[in-house]
């Protein structure tokens, strides 16, 4: 590979990473602003606010249950470049609309500047700022170690096994958060590691098990299934919270059950992979991908010969 081509590939990879930063920033904005939003809508009862807040994520996810199927087909049809620009434009437009609505603000300063509540409001703001630091830990961990984990996965394989390790680790994370008094940073660091392991192991596995012409559709199907969970689970969290109006331990135990469910799915994935020649767990993933491409070329050649006759 020539140096100029290698530089272009690294540039494309860097720009793709920047694109994902914008995507996740837009998606995670409501979670980071939850307390501020609740203060803004202070006239809404707490239980009602929890339901509406989680409903926001559900409404985002419902159309994305079906749209990724069409998105995957469009990628296979028109190519990644055209559709990447189209999808990025849609994300930008959605965030601009959301930001425009958020800037229409009529907050009253009486509470923030009042003689009896000034210290309380300042302390509350400081607490919210301090809470933002732990929330960023999983993402910082993921940003730092994901490239190295991707390199390791490419070297050793074991993709299905690592996809099982991730939900097991997340189960341990939520057990620590909900049932122990361990230092907060321990489970959050483990959460970042689990997220990185899962992303490095599972998402790149798709090209190893489907033909090249169906990769976009396959990713669309995975994203659609993911959004089914993103649509249902926030409502489940809101329902559990409204039961006793606190997150610990009820909501954390709910997350533990999700982790156990993910672990069972991971076990099933490993069993299926073993029955099909350890495509994901073996170190011959590259050979398998080449084999799929050769099989596809052979089918195309047979179709061409048949058309000539």
TrEMBL record:
Q: Which UniProt keywords apply?
A: Lysosome, Membrane, Transmembrane, Transmembrane helix, Transport
Which InterPro entries does this UniProt record tie to the protein?
MFS (IPR011701), MFS_trans_sf (IPR036259), MFSD1 (IPR052187)
Q: Which reaction does it catalyse?
A: L-histidyl-glycine(out) = L-histidyl-glycine(in); L-lysyl-L-lysine(out) = L-lysyl-L-lysine(in); L-alpha-aminoacyl-L-arginine(out) = L-alpha-aminoacyl-L-arginine(in); L-arginyl-glycine(out) = L-arginyl-glycine(in)
**Where are the membrane-spanning stretches?**
7-25, 51-75, 82-104, 136-153, 160-186, 192-210, 217-238, 253-272
Q: Name one Pfam family in it.
A: MFS_1
Q: Name one GO molecular function term.
A: transmembrane transporter activity
> Where is it located?
Lysosome membrane
Q: How does it sit in the membrane?
A: Multi-pass membrane protein
Q: Primary place of residence? A: membrane
Coiled-coil spans in chain: none
Cross-referenced Gene3D superfamilies: MFS general substrate transporter like domains (1.20.1250.20)
A GO cellular component annotated for this chain's UniProt record is: lysosomal membrane
The UniProt entry's sequence similarity note says: Belongs to the major facilitator superfamily.
Q: Describe the protein's quaternary organization and the partners it interacts with.
A: Homodimer. Interacts with lysosomal protein GLMP (via lumenal domain); the interaction starts while both proteins are still in the endoplasmic reticulum and is required for stabilization of MFSD1 in lysosomes but has no direct effect on its targeting to lysosomes or transporter activity.
Query: Which PANTHER family does the annotation name?
Result: MAJOR FACILITATOR SUPERFAMILY DOMAIN-CONTAINING PROTEIN 1
Q: Could you tell me what this protein does?
A: Lysosomal dipeptide uniporter that selectively exports lysine, arginine or histidine-containing dipeptides with a net positive charge from the lysosome lumen into the cytosol. Could play a role in a specific type of protein O-glycosylation indirectly regulating macrophages migration and tissue invasion. Also essential for liver homeostasis.
* Official protein name in the record: Lysosomal dipeptide transporter MFSD1
């Amino acid at each position: 590979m020539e140096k100029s081509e290698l530089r272009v590939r690294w540039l494309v990879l860097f720009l793709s990473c920047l694109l994902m930063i914008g995507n996740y920033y837009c998606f995670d904005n409501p979670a980071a602003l939850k307390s501020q939003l609740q203060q803004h809508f202070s006239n809404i009862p707490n239980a009602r606010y929890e339901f509406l807040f989680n409903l926001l994520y559900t409404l985002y996810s419902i159309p994305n249950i079906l749209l990724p199927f069409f998105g995957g087909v469009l990628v296979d049809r028109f190519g990644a470049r055209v559709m990447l620009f189209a999808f990025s434009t849609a994300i930008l437009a959605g965030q601009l609309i959301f930001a425009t609505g958020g800037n229409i603000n009529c907050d009253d300063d009486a509470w923030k500047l009042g003689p009896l509540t000034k210290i309380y409001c300042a302390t509350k703001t400081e607490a919210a700022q301090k809470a933002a630091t732990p929330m960023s830990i999983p993402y910082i961990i993921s940003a730092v170690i994901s490239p190295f984990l991707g390199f390791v996965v490419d070297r050793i394989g074991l993709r299905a096994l690592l996809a099982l390790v991730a939900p097991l680790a997340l189960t341990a994370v939520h057990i620590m958060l909900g049932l122990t008094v361990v230092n907060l940073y321990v489970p959050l660091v483990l959460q970042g590691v689990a997220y990185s392991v899962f992303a490095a192991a599972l998402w790149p596995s798709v090209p190893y098990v489907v033909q090249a012409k169906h990769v976009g559709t396959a990713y669309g199907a995975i994203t659609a299934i993911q959004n089914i969970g993103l649509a249902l689970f926030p409502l489940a969290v809101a329902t559990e919270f409204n039961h006793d109006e606190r997150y610990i331990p009820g909501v954390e135990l709910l997350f533990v059950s999700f982790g156990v469910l993910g672990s069972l799915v991971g076990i099933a994935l490993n069993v299926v992979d073993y029955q099909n020649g350890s495509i994901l767990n073996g170190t011959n993933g590259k050979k398998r991908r080449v084999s799929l491409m050769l099989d596809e070329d052979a089918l195309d050649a047979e179709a061409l010969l048949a058309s000539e006759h």
